[in-house]
Amino acid sequence: MLHVSKKAAAGLGLVAAIALAGCQGEPTVSTAENPATTAAPTAQTAAYLCPMACEGSASQQPGKCPVCGMDLEPNPAVKTGAAAPDSL
């Protein structure tokens, strides 16, 4: 009876090792499905950014960060096209 439980333990250990080894591989993502390859605004060109600098939160419109849910803030690096009336 002890011989059977050693085989079962060895088999269970082998299954666990195979399962853990499969988790260490890099996922394959095609470029067609990768949102990073689309024409999304970058942090330098986006009008609004997340105050927590979450990746992928840059937007041309106000709203909420899709990662953390905070309100997006105007990007100080982007200059608006209209000049202030008192700047003349």
From TrEMBL:
Pfam families according to UniProt: HMBD (PF19335)
Top-rank taxon, per record: Bacteria
Keywords from the named record: Signal
DNA-binding as UniProt keyword: no
Coiled-coil portions: none
Domain Heavy metal binding: 48-75
Entry annotated with the keyword Signal: yes
Signal peptide: 1-21
UniProt protein name: Heavy metal binding domain-containing protein
Species the sequence originates in: Hymenobacter guriensis
